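User: I'm writing a tutorial on reading structure tokens. Could you give me a worked example: one chain, its sequence, then its tokens, then a sentence or two explaining what the tokens reveal?
Assistant: Sure. Here is the example chain.
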Amino acid sequence: MKEAILTIFTCFSFLLLYAQNPIGLPQIVNYSNLDYKGGIQNWAIDQDKDGRVYFANNEGLLSFDGKHWKLNRLPNNTVVHALKVDASGKIYVGAQDEIGYYLPDSRGILTYHSLKPLMPESSRQFADIWNICQQDGATFFRTVEKIFYLKDGIVSVFKTNNEWTFLGSAQNQVYAQQKHEGLMVFREGTWQTACSAPILKEGIVTAVLDYAPGTLLIATLKNGLFLLTGNQLIPKNTEADQIFNTSYIYCAIPVNREWFAVGTTTSACYIIDRNGKVIQHFSSDEGLQKNYIRNLFTDRAKNLWLALDDGIDFIAFNSAIKQIFPDNKKQISSYTSYIFNQNLYVGASNGLFHLPINNSIKDLSYSRGEFKEVSNLKGQVWGLREINHQLLLGHEDGTFNVEQNQLKPVNQSIGTWLFEPISPIEPSPDALAGTYEGLQLLHFDKGTFVNAGPITGLDKISLRFMAYDHSNNIVWSSHPYRGVFKLNLSADHKRILKSKLLTVKDGLPSTLGNYLFHIKNRIVVATLKGIYEYNDHTQRFERSAFFYPYVKNTALHYLNEDRAGNVWFVNEKKLGVIDFSTNKNHPTVVYFPELTSKLVSGFEHIYPFNQQNIFVGANKGIYHINFLKYREQSKQLNALLTQVKIFGKKDSIVFGGYSNGNISQVKLPYDLNSLQFEFSSTLYEQQNTIEFSYQLSGFDKDWSAWSTKAEKEYTNLPPGKYIFKVKARNNLGNESKPIEHLVIIEPAWYQTWWFYLFCVCIAAGFMYLLTKRQQKQHVQEQEKLKYLHQLELEHNEREIMKLQNEKLVADVVYKNKELASTTMHLVQRGKLLAKIKEELLPLANSSSGDKAAEFKRVIKLLNEAERNDADWEQFAIHFDMIHSNFLSRLKERFPDLSPNDLKLCAYLKMNLTSKEIAQLMSITIKAVEVSRYRLRKKMQIPSDVPLFDYLINAINYNYQE
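And here are its predicted structure tokens:
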């Protein structure tokens, strides 16, 4: 019964403490053994000068650089329970029957060095090492039976007849707990009693911490916390004492000067201040993997690392971004928020939540308490707006007035998006409500708003984006799928006198995707291609010259201006801000990649209460940004070259990532010229925002584009010297110093100087032999040249003959044309003579006497002219000259041919018609046909062979033969 009551009381205390947690939860990153590829249990944590974090793991020494996990096993493969990194870079580790340290070798690879050879032989066998601490250049290692003391290369051993149950350091001294003896302090080479209080004799000390000058904070496993001043031990009361008495304290560390972190075995981690007040509680409910904390560590950025019984957790405790969950199940999406009458209101997908806040707290994420849901409201909350000191709420069921965390209905007939006051001076007599079906008028009467009915003159259109131009009594609104509305109101604000829909034809880049806002005293539209403003003179939208340098053509769909003049925006699923507060003339654009894809897409909400409290609607809960802290958090960015590996013929690590501060280098043979470089940055809380740029000097001309990729490969590098350089930057524009690594690719054997010298000698011998050979070849070439010259002369002669033949052919063609012309002339003359004779014959027949005699004499002369053979003789000479003695050869072959036969053959060879031949020979056409027939007989030409073809082919062929 007593145990049940104690359990109930403990659970009640736990719930009470949980309710008092700050509402803001920092980012928690879980690393399981599947991530780091090691054992599930982790026992100790430390950090080196470069920022790497080390973990004592069940399977060895585990290290993490922000991008890559590495596991180094001990030679005996035992569990590492303790570790400590000293100022020189040595990483001391302790395990079962093994102590030593890791130190990088000449290749930057961690190499283990055992300390057992320095021990007395009688002490070289021991149980697990559980604690390691350092002080004044000495290193202490604790087992249950012994404490090893390393100084100046000598290991001393302190044994006990009981048990050494704790070892630690505080206030520049080393403390150890000896069972039944109490807390001991190491002074002048001996262990002296610091406090022998019964609690410290029989209980188990788990931590000794600096608390105040001369005062220590002592954590015990089962008895809670104590303060030790001198040798006086007094309990340290805290709000978590009931938890500490039932959930054992396994470890404790200072977080800062005022706060301490306490790790327990069942209730995870508590952050308490000097007064014992619980600042925050982290457990599996907040996102830890386990509630069993084996060790805690604060890194250089004051963030927390937790070594768990199963895994490793990182808490960005010092981060400027935190998550707030209004509901216990942490499932709701938030659409709006507002601070009113010392209450933080969050409108969500299932109602309205509120939390009382303390105005004295600058960063409201540290506010305590529990969100409560407004009981008489269910459903989607769209907007909250304070007008005339009244908080108006837009809901899917209408408009409500929030009064003392109760809702007073104003209009429950139609869903409402947002509100705009009519007057910029309070109290505004009226307000506009953008609803699912247009505009509603709200009238302010007797200190509250009442529904004045719909504003007529516009179709029922959903108006979710709205701004009011007080000077011109114009309502501006946008519909993402239609365009921008310009609405002129009447003086009583009850009617729309004139409405105009502005689209692409009015200057907008697209009819779709337009979101209207009132920013920097401007009516602006966030579009698919940047920000546009309305020009009253041209009555068109134009690209904003003011905003263009900062957002260019970026597609935007949300804008909001805070009191400092900064403009918050959403680009697709990314949150950003144009920061005018630091330099108004040269503002900077800052993105928040930590929140990418976590906003409510399509219903984005940003409520900038002040620079330390920016509330951002999210898919789960709501995010809080301390922008002042985010911007001014000056963290020194670093870049680490964590590994250089060759790949291809064989894969091996040539540089392990550890250097002594000088430029590291590696020299490789020519055939191992494909390299992979891995790099990282140890700014753990901003891993999602870090980008890298690299350059291989001697190969790359310029630095690469910034990218989140943390490795680079180069293949088939030619011989030479290269310097690989890499640097990191975060989203605030901070850049690290470049890290450099020298790589030398040696030339192949055939590219060395001795090989070149050998080649020169061989070349000289060849030159001598070549000279002798050339002399012999010279004589042969001279003979060859003569022969070629003779061939060239013969070739030229043949070319000359060819040209002459071509000229003869041209002459023949010309003469043939001339002969054809002469022949045609004869034909025409014959036609003319025949025509004259035909004309004279009738006259001669009709005349008598002397006149008739004259006509007959003329006709006789014409007949003689037709029979004149002089023309034929001349023609025959030219014909034979042109046609290779065609007539002579024809006469030789056929001696019986008469002159008329030869004439006929010549005319046939010229392909003249029978009529033309009859005129030339002064005979009739019938006589020509008879002559052709007789010619066939004399020449014995078959009837089926054309006479023309025979004269062309047979005579010519015979000639060629």
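What the tokens reveal: Confidence is low (pLDDT under 50) at residues 1-19, 957-961. The CA atoms of residues 880 and 886 lie 6 Å apart.
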